[in-house]
């Protein structure tokens, strides 16, 4: 158990819809990262927050957005969903800048 | 920008045999290097990490990795694999710049263990 909690574990929705994925980091960790894992793209970094502020942005689509709340949990919002958005979305957290990440078990999104 | 190459997409080894998974990185400064393992249906678990110092690092589950700056490599090894080692293994490089903390992952190597 990494201490990172993600909900929901599985989500099935239709094209054009909007979903929200939630992440609770390990106790004490200030950084939260979102990654997308798909068969064709591998593990892609989406975005990182540190203590409520956006710190780094990767290959995140404009249809996607995220935020980190004062209690440090984070949400990833995916809108206008397309079939290609079907993937495993991971949240990870870390205590500082060394890059040692602790991953949640992921949220599997299926867009039909 | 940093990058990671894992040249082997899939490796099959016999139980009890030795294992080496290759990882090459590209980064302009001293990298932070990591190996993660992902079992089916699970998240990624940190096996080991290199920040500085001794270039041979020990990790969990009997794994070790050696940092070779001259070859820009960070290969993962295990002297004798167990069936439970079957999983996907990811090498990753992290930047030392505080302002850019994201890890860049390789494409992974899937390890199959045969009896």
Short structural summary:
The complex is a heterodimer of chains A (112) and B (115). By secondary structure, chain A is mostly beta strands.
**Helical region count of chain A?**
0
Helix proportion range of chain B: under 10%
User: What is the number of beta strands of chain B?
Assistant: 12
**Major sheet description of chain B:** 6 strands, mixed
Which range does the strand content of chain A fall in?
A: over 45%
For the largest interface, the chains and their residue counts are: A-B, 26 and 26 residues
The count of strands of chain A amounts to: 11
Largest sheet of chain A: 7 strands, mixed
As an assembly, this protein is heterodimer
Percentage of β-strand residues of chain B: over 45%
Q: Tags for this entry?
A:
heterodimer; A: 112 residues; mainly beta; seven-stranded mixed sheet; four-stranded antiparallel sheet; B: 115 residues; six-stranded mixed sheet; 0% helix; globular
